Amino acid sequence: MIRISSQFDSGAIEVLDCSDASNIRLALPADNAADFRQWFHFRLQGARGQACVLSFENAGQSAYPSGWDGYRVVASYDRRNWFRLSAGQYDGQRYSFRITPDYDSVYFAYFEPYGWDRHLDLLGAADAAPVASVDDLGATHDGRDLNLITVGRPAPGKRKVWITARQHPGETMAEFYVEGLLERLYDTSDPVSRRLLERACFHIVPNMNPDGSVRGNLRTNARGCNLNRAWREPDMDFSREVALVRDRMLATGVDVFLDIHGDETLPFVFIDGNGMVPGFTEAQGAQEKRFCDALLAASPDFQVGEGYAPDRFTDELLTLASKWVFNHFGCLSLTLEMPFKDNAHLPDGLFGWSAARSRRLGAATLQALLAVLDRD
To answer: Could you give all domains of the chain from N- to C-terminal order, each with its CATH number?
Structure first.
C-alpha cells in the first residue's frame, strides 16, 4: 500500500489521493499562519519498482509560479545523499514529476533540507572551535533558541562583520552556505581565515527563523511574519527574531553585513546591493564592486550580469535587512541570492544547485570579504 507522510522536521505536503501510483495527487500547503506556499518535504512509502507520477495540483497558486518552469525535484533514499529527478511538467497550474523508486521509502523536497539536528551539530562545531563561541539572543515565538555564533574576539580597531541566513526558512541553501563559510573560518591553517580574524570579528546568525524551519514554512515565522519585511519597525509580538538580532547589531555596530537567501525563479548566484537607496555614494558603489570582483575571482558560480531590477523594491525598501543596515550604519550591506534550480551559467545535470555548492560558495566568500577588509 502506498503511503505519504510529512510528520517530521520541516515536513510539508497535503495528500489528495494516493490510491493509484500512476496518479498521486498532492497539494502544496500554506505556511502555518500566512498564505505562502512552495516548500514541500515528504516521504513516499510502498511504491518500490512502481512507475509513479506525482502532481502538485495547486502549483499555479504558489508564491512563485514561474519557479516551476524547468524545476527538478530533489530526492533521497537515505536523507543524506540528495539528487535531482528529471524536469517535471508544468502547465501553469499543475506540476507533475515521475520516479520509479528503487527502495520502499523515498524522500522528496523543494531543496535539500537543513534539519534542526544538523543546526544543533553546527552549534556543536562552533563550541568545539577554539576561535568561536555560541550565544542565544533570546527565544522565538515557539520557544526555540535564536542562536548567534561569534568567531574571533572583539578588540579595538577590529571590524564587525554580521551574516544572517534563513530569514525565509524554506531557503535552506542559506544555512548550508553558512556551514561552508564557518568551516573555513575555523581553519587556523588557512591564511585567508587567519588574516580575516586579525582584521575582524564575525557575528553569524545561521538560522533567523527556527520556528518556520521546523514547521516547514516557505517564507514566514510562526506568527506569519515575513522577517525580511520587518527591519524598519520590528516588534516582539510579531517579528521577535528581527527585534532580537537588530538589538544586538545596535550594541556591537556593523561594518559589513551579508544577508543570505535563495531565489525560486532566477537560475543564478547574484548580489543585490544598495544603488537604489537614497544617499548611496560613488565610494559605496566602488566598495560593492570591489566585493563582487573578488567573489567573481574566488568562485565561477558567481556572476554579475543577472539579478533583481533596480526598482524591484519601492515603499518596502527599508524594511529589508540589507537595506535597513545600509541606511542605518552606512556600511557595505548586501543580499546574496542562490538558486533553487541550478546555475544556468554552470549547470550540473545530476545535482543542480546543491547543498555542496552552497557550502563551497560560503567558503569562497571569505576571499571577497578579505578583499574588502584589506582595502578599507
So the answer is: 3-109 (2.60.40.3120), 116-375 (3.40.630.10)
